[in-house]
Amino acid sequence: MQLHRTDVIDGAIAILDEYGLADLTMRKLAGSLRVQPGALYWHFPNKQALLGAVADRILAPMEDQVATEDWADQLDELAHRLRDSLLAYRDGAELVSATYASRLTTSKGRERMVAAALRAGMPRPEAELAAFTLLHYILGQTVDEQSRIQMDSVGALTEDASPLADTIDATARFDFGLRLFIAGIQHRLGVHQR
């Protein structure tokens, strides 16, 4: 059987979902695909390139059409879509965060956020900064959420770890921060328009 690039990505995602990012090694992946580790390097020059491809797969929903023309609704939809994409995979936020930091993902999700901010009337430099800020908010919030889920699943969370975090649903916390972010853009645009 010939090994294809998509087979390698599928195998990496299967390991990610079952064992987590820390256990996603080229050796383990080669074993699960029943090939020698060198066979993986035919498709990916190194593990970082593989992680970039896995991140692109995780972020694929960011390429789908946005359902609205309103810039604030677009940012809301893109933010929720990104969060949902990250939560769909174990350690998805951690993996995507690392690939964004090292510029290994080719996803245009951040650029779509820039476009929404430009549509709102922000100058390009501010739209770029706004998109990075929103991206980092989503990644950080989701890394925390996934870490808490994993720690809770093994009984590692203590009762007094964060009383507020335990009383507010993770989606409600996310939505609160997102509303603050969008309101901040609206306020800033109001200040510039005077």
Automatic annotation (TrEMBL):
DNA-binding region range list: 25-44
Residue runs in coiled coils: none
Domain HTH tetR-type: 2-62
Keyword match Protein biosynthesis: no
Pfam families in UniProt: TetR_C_1, TetR_N
Superkingdom to which the source organism belongs: Bacteria
Keyword DNA-binding attributed: yes
Keyword list, A-Z: DNA-binding, Repressor, Transcription, Transcription regulation
Matching PANTHER family: HTH-TYPE TRANSCRIPTIONAL REGULATOR RUTR (PTHR30055), TRANSCRIPTIONAL REGULATORY PROTEIN (PTHR30055:SF151)
Full protein name: TetR family transcriptional regulator BioQ
The encoding gene: bioQ_2
